[in-house]
Design brief:
Layout: H1 6-31, H2 38-74, H3 89-94, H4 102-110
Helix pairs in contact: 1-2
Bound molecules: zinc ion.
The site of zinc ion (ZN) has 8 residues, from α4.
Length: about 120
């Protein structure tokens, strides 16, 4: 069962490493000592804000990747968590960490889907 998803597992793990590295460098970036003149401080401030938003986004993605890897281990990967149908290969190739099939994702985006 795990072997069946090996391609995705490797893809997810590679992506996970990339994101973990990016997160570490963003975190280092916001830890940088502030200094300089007023303009520098203002620029640092907006760069910090941007870095913080990026960290939030990357952290959320990292959590999704972890969940997807967990689903591979549990054997529920590739199955829609809302309707239980297989998630299409095209969708998995586009978004390997998705846990909803396309129709369910669209319903969720419209707000029609009860949280599964
Ligand atoms: Zn579905």
């Amino acid at each position: 069962m795990i072997h069946r998803w090996k391609k995705y597992q490797e893809l997810l793990e590679a992506r996970r490493r990339e994101i973990a590295e990016e997160l570490a460098s963003k975190r280092a970036q916001i830890a940088i000592e502030r200094g300089g003149d007023e303009l520098d401080r203002m620029r640092n401030f907006s760069e910090r804000e941007l870095a913080i938003r990026t960290i939030d986004r990357l952290s959320a993605l990292l959590a999704q990747l972890d969940l997807a890897l967990e689903r591979i281990r549990e054997g529920t990967f590739g199955t829609c968590r809302a309707c239980g149908r297989p998630i299409g290969a095209r969708r998995l190739n586009a978004v390997p960490w998705s846990s909803l099939c396309l129709p369910c994702q669209e319903a969720a985006d419209r707000g029609d889907l009860e949280a599964a």
